[in-house]
From TrEMBL:
Residue span, Glycosyltransferase 2-like domain: 8-60
Name of the featured protein: Family 2 glycosyl transferase
Record flagged with keyword rRNA-binding: no
Species annotation: Methanobacterium formicicum
A Pfam entry, by short name: Glyco_tranf_2_3
Protein's UniProt keywords contain Transferase: yes
InterPro entries noted in UniProt: Glyco_trans_2-like, Nucleotide-diphossugar_trans
Lineage, broadest ranks: Archaea, Methanobacteriati, Methanobacteriota, Methanomada group, Methanobacteria
Similarity comment: Belongs to the glycosyltransferase 2 family.
Length: 348
């Protein structure tokens, strides 16, 4: 039987402990034809050293989800992002000769490009150098089921209109509670998302076919053909909303987002505290996303709504909590989102 070649891209930034657990779970999957690419976004910690030590067999990964397997050392093919500018790298025959669970492609970025551009570097390499049939974006703070990739690929092959596929995502700390069933629905009038199955106990109620508006970036499978037509992630987002944008651009080209309920992963998801940095990007990108995906009239109405929300939140932060930094982040995010130029397609 012939299996499509899948490039699994894992973005790392100062998160080597999560990345090692993710890698070990990936190397134990049953799917026979894949390449693992770790893109390091210029980590400031010892991530590179720890990843190298793990591949050499010096670090044993402990997890409640699997037993660590003693195996041959993992061969690392290491490149800087600048080295990837060449059209064909000389080691491809060597890379192809190594078993999937015995090799790692490590791409080291010279700066933190954020989620979108960081992953785009991996996507570009996967399509141009590995000749991958599919690309899978996988958060480094996840653990995967042994059959997760088989189920994703099977769902992707059901018909030519499937553009993006996502799994059933459980919360890492509570194995039977769902974070999301594939993705979410989007309310463009208010720039809000409603994650399907959010924090519900899994009792089989979501074991059926679904078409979300978009697949969450925690784990998203996309084919070469779709990427070549739709483009890659829009780097203008940096963080937040880029996954929704990708799927919406695909939808305009006639591609569905599909939930593969038999595919399972666990995500170290939890409520994180707001910071001015996060609030700025979330506010800005929320506006940028709606601008790209609505009519002028709809965007005007949304702008009035979000302005009222932003001003009220900003004043509350400033007056009641005496937090001028958070207040400034709200306002700057609003005005930058309004003025940010739309990037309709990011070519491979």
């Amino acid at each position: 039987m012939s299996f499509p070649r899948v490039a699994i891209i894992i973005l790392n930034w100062n998160g080597w402990e999560d990345t090692l657990e993710c890698l070990e779970s990936v190397y134990q999957i049953n799917y026979p034809e894949y390449d693992v690419i770790v893109v390091d976004n210029n980590s400031e910690d010892i991530s590179i050293k720890k990843i190298e030590d793990y591949c050499a067999g010096y670090i044993k990964v402990d997890s409640n989800f699997f037993n660590y397997q003693n195996k041959n050392p993992i061969k690392i093919f290491e490149y800087s992002s600048n080295e990837l500018q060449s059209s064909k790298l000389p080691e491809m025959d060597v890379i192809n000769s190594v078993k999937p669970n015995e090799k790692l492609i490590l791409i080291k970025n010279h700066k933190n490009y954020g989620f979108a551009k960081g992953n785009n570097i991996g996507i570009s390499y996967a399509l141009k150098s590995l000749d991958a049939d599919y690309v899978l974006l996988l958060n480094n703070d996840t653990v995967v089921d042994k059959d997760f990739l088989t189920e994703l690929v099977d769902a992707a092959k059901t018909n030519d209109n499937v553009g993006f596929v996502g799994p059933k995502v459980y919360i890492y700390s509570d194995k039977n509670t769902l974070q999301v069933a594939g993705g979410a629905k989007v309310d463009l009038k208010h720039g809000e998302v409603d994650e399907i199955a959010y924090h519900q106990r899994d009792e089989g109620q979501f074991d059926h076919y679904l078409e979300p508006d978009y697949i969450g970036g925690t784990c998203i499978l996309c084919s070469r053909e779709v990427i070549e037509e739709v483009g890659m992630l829009d780097p203008g987002y940096f963080m937040y909303w880029e996954d929704a944008d990708w799927c919406f651009r695909g939808r305009k080209q006639g591609y569905k987002s599909v939930y593969a309920f038999k595919s399972k992963i666990w995500h170290k998801y939890g409520a994180s505290s707001d910071t001015p940095f996060k609030m700025y990007y979330f506010t800005r990108n929320r506006i940028y996303f709606v601008k790209k995906n609505s009519t002028r009239g709809e965007f005007f109405l949304f702008s009035m709504f979000i302005l009222a929300v932003t001003l009220s939140k900003s004043l509350r932060q400033l007056i009641l909590q005496c937090d001028s930094k958070m207040s400034y982040a709200y306002l700057k995010g609003f005005f930058d989102g309004i003025t940010l130029s739309v990037n309709s397609k990011v070519k491979v």
